[in-house]
Amino acid sequence: MDTHEDKQFLETLVKALVDHPESVRINRTVDEMGVLLTLDVHAEDMGKIIGRSGNTAKAIRTLLRVVGMKHDARVNLKINEPEGGRGMSTEMSEAMREDNPSASEPKSLDQAIEDLKI
After folding, report:
1. How many angstroms separate the Cα of 66 from the Cα of each of 18, 42, 60, 73?
2. Is the pLDDT confidence value at 27 over 80?
3. Radius of gyration of the chain (CA)
4. How many domains does the chain have?
5. Alpha-carbon torsion 99, 40, 5, 20, what sign?
């Protein structure tokens, strides 16, 4: 995906949701697994990005996968915990770990293969 349409899409979407758009930072890396977008937002905006029960984060990830499919690329989103982010709810922690395997239990081979299916 040469145009970085996925990064532009995420930036536009996230900045429309948060109270501190100037604090939105997105890092884009590409490897054999696909595209990884790493998102940093102001600590006060984490709840808006994660959403109730992680639903907003799940919706953003779904939309990014659709944008990626348009370009035959797998796009994943990692949401970084902000500096000084304390007292995070269970839902927020789980939503942040969803695409960050190093922060959660290792997946079985069957789970990893299932995750690769679009």
Report:
1. 22, 26, 10, 9
2. yes
3. 14
4. 1
5. positive
